[in-house]
Design a protein that fits this description.
The chain is mostly helical and 138 residues long. It is 71% helix and 0% strand. The chain is built from five helices and no strands. The radius of gyration is 19 Å and the shape is elongated. The chain starts with 10 loop residues before the first helix and ends in a 7-residue tail after the last helix.
Length: 138
């Protein structure tokens, strides 16, 4: 039986927190990519690889944030976090680019793969498992 620590938050609050992490990491990564392009450190041909890495890292860290804050139903929570981030990216695409959705499936696959990998690579805290073991004394 698991001991409740009382540090978990609700699902909508955890998903909102993961979306904030996704947006902030995406904004920072886009600024870094723009600076590298301006300094000509990377070429236009390599920009797609940088953006794919940005999407993977951002969705992974957003999924990790959702797992650490909600602490239940790992795969469902990370999948919902990925879907929420993908819907946000679709809204941004519709807002700024007039709804020109190019590579819609690839972007969604990268985001879902990054968020689900957060659940697959999650290691629960091993120290608490020893403390929560119940001993039977006679």
């Amino acid at each position: 039986m698991k001991m409740k620590t009382g540090k978990a938050i609700s699902v909508p609050a955890g998903l909102g927190l993961s979306l904030v992490v996704n947006i902030s990491i995406t904004s920072i990564a886009v600024a870094i990519i723009a600076i590298l392009l301006n300094r000509k450190s990377i070429t236009w041909e390599n920009t797609g690889y940088w953006i794919m890495g940005m999407l993977l890292i951002s969705s992974f860290l957003g999924g990790k944030t959702a797992i650490c804050s909600i602490k239940t139903q790992l795969y469902l929570v990370t999948f919902m976090s990925g879907i929420l981030y993908w819907m946000f990216m679709l809204c941004i695409t519709a807002l700024f680019f007039g709804g020109h959705y190019s590579s819609l499936f690839e972007t969604g696959a990268l985001i879902i793969a990054g968020s689900i990998s957060a659940a697959l690579l999650h290691r629960p805290n091993r120290r608490n498992s020893l403390r929560s073991r119940q001993h039977s004394y006679r």
